[in-house]
Amino acid sequence: MSEVEVFPVPAEWAKRAHLDQAAYEAACRRVEADPTGFWTDVARRLDWMTFPTEIKDVSFNKEDFHIRWYGDGILNVSVNCLDRHLATRGDQTAIIWEADDPHISTKLTYKELHARVCRMANVLKAKGVRKGDRVTIYLPMIPDAAVAMLACARIGAVHSVVFGGFSPDSIAGRIQDCDSKLVITADEGLRGGKVVPLKLNVDEALKTCPGVTDVIVIRRTQAEVPMTAGRDHFYSDLKDSVSDRCDPEPMNAEDPLFILYTSGSTGKPKGVLHTTGGYLAWASYTHELVFDYRPGEVFWCTADVGWVTGHSYVVYGPLANAATTVIFEGVPNYPTSSRFWEVCDRHQVEIFYTAPTAIRALMREGDAPVKATSRKSIRLLGTVGEPINPEAWLWYHRVVGEERCPIVDTWWQTETGATLMSPLPGATALKPGSCTKPLPGVKPQLVDADGKVLEGAINGNLCLTDSWPGQMRTVYGDHQRFFDTYFSTYPGKYFTGDGARRDEDGYYWITGRVDDVINVSGHRLGTAEIESALVGHDGVAEAAVVGYPHEIKGQGIYCYVTLRTDVEPSDSIRADLRQWVRREIGPFAAPDVIQFAPGLPKTRSGKIMRRILRKIAEDDLSNLGDTSTLADPAVVDDLVKNRGHRR
Ligand code: WTA
């Protein structure tokens, strides 16, 4: 490795922090010495109706596989995010909403948010939603998204938020998988000045979801949308006939809170299930530690609530910690590339958390749009979702943060509920591109392909040898798949699917996925999903999809497509396939490169050799490896000769 610049902990951070370096190390020691005491204290940050006495009950082994945290505790998530703040912080702003249109923003106090959540909870009850029922939420980034999530939590319904960029087909698959009876959506969404036809997408999806009996429609743009009598209702017509008080449902800590679908290396997206007590404790604990958060500070996480980052760091973590959280409807470059920083100035944002892809896109626009703003309110910066390249990190640090703000590079996954590895601003010296060290209680381990444990400074596959409260509990409806996906590769351990390097200081550097998952602009996609969309097209005989390094998106989508023999390769079919994938999955899944391939490299047993396809897509031809075992080695020559132009 070349010299890595190290950024020491600023003295004022060490002084003010919840945990300075000594306290961090003490916490790590305490988890070893007294795990029950440590995890009991983590639970104390929540308000319980019945405080748990069973703290941790976990086995990752096949014979008695189970994961339970705080298993006899009783609580309600919405009480923890709302009611308990009312006495002292009822008039504090809970949510600042910044609309897509930069002239519009509104604020909601904790009192107002509480009343809105109760109303929506009562509306859901009136529509027959009961504890344990699933509710699908397909909304733009408006306060009602948080209201809908919390309303479900209040009555014990399990929400499944579907990102507004997903297609009707993707919505339908997610509704069917968890058997939602009710969908909450909006007439339309607005992003970067463009309309997203949310209600029309839901209508299309529901053609294959006969189980949905009710659709609640929030008016966002006031556009006229078709309404199916008996099934579809405008929220504005329902909300005034119910009370703004609603008793919270007492929930067991292990009762489900939400399902969130995420892509894996095989098959259709998995319904990642998170439960009530452990998830909220971990979201709240990590939000406080990683951002060194104190109640009332203005916190902005730019993620959409359709992804896990939005769940844990727009809604649950911040609100559990009595934050003022910003909900932003728009995009980083609308109307101009100064937008993020203007919003920070307007709302005096103190902690700003975004994705490397956004940083890289803004970096490309130069320093001027940043320097046109003040940003004096910002004290701390964060990143999440994909590895950040040191150039982008340094630009973020130097230009956006004026070398004043530490950067927390938080590594985690939908499955982990909230952050597992990250610097703590008052405890950890920073190295650009490294997520540094595990949080107290988190036990990473590197192993080789055979599962041999690797020590010292080395590269390997990243596992976790023990549980933490925010760990997912199952794949909805398929517990066997949960075990097989995460616990069977390296018995007794949770396998993350990520590769990582550990350096001589024990810092971790995530190198990216080692499975067939790709990370495109921070959006997680399974190559298998894109392949299955492609072969759904009439003209396609076979398809293989891999990722390749992309300057802005992190990874781009490279598709090898074998057309049916009666279909001629052409630019028009290429455009058609792009459009097809957009329609099948969603616009963010549109292929970057489509290469027509008369054949794919396969072993004699018919297995596609993805390693070769990855190398060609990466333009790394020096290292194609042994192709002699291929059924038809000549295929590779054709792929190399005709390799696609990357966008
Ligand atoms: C990647 C998003 C490097 C990683 C919270 C992981 C990261 C996947 C980082 C999960 C980071 C997330 N540095 N890589 N700080 N954060 N990743 O489920 O490959 O959408 O496995 O959760 O994103 O993506 P997911």
Structural description of this entry:
This is Acetyl-coenzyme A synthetase. Residues 83-465 form the AMP-dependent synthetase/ligase domain. Residues 24-81 form the Acetyl-coenzyme A synthetase N-terminal domain. With 647 residues, this protein is an alpha/beta fold. Helix 18 (571-584) links the parallel strand 30 (554-563) and strand 31 (593-596). It has an 8-stranded mixed beta sheet with strand order 12-11-8-6-7-14-15-24, with helices on both faces. Strands 5-4-17-16-18-19-20 form a 7-stranded mixed beta sheet, with helices on both faces. The protein is built from 20 helices and 31 strands. The chain starts with 10 loop residues before the first helix and ends in a 6-residue tail after the last helix. The model has no long low-confidence stretch (mean pLDDT 96). 5'-O-[(S)-ethoxy(hydroxy)phosphoryl]adenosine binds at residues 262, 307-309, 384-387, 409-414, 435, 496-498, 510, 512-513, 519, 524.
- The number of helical segments is 20
Cα Rg: 24 Å
> Residue-averaged pLDDT, rounded?
96
Helicity level, as a percent range? 25-40%
The beta-strand count equals 31
Small-molecule binders here are:
5'-O-[(S)-ethoxy(hydroxy)phosphoryl]adenosine
- The spatial strand order of the largest sheet comes to 12-11-8-6-7-14-15-24
Label the structural class.
alpha/beta
Main sheet properties: 8 strands, mixed
DSSP strand content: 15-25%
Low-confidence stretches: none
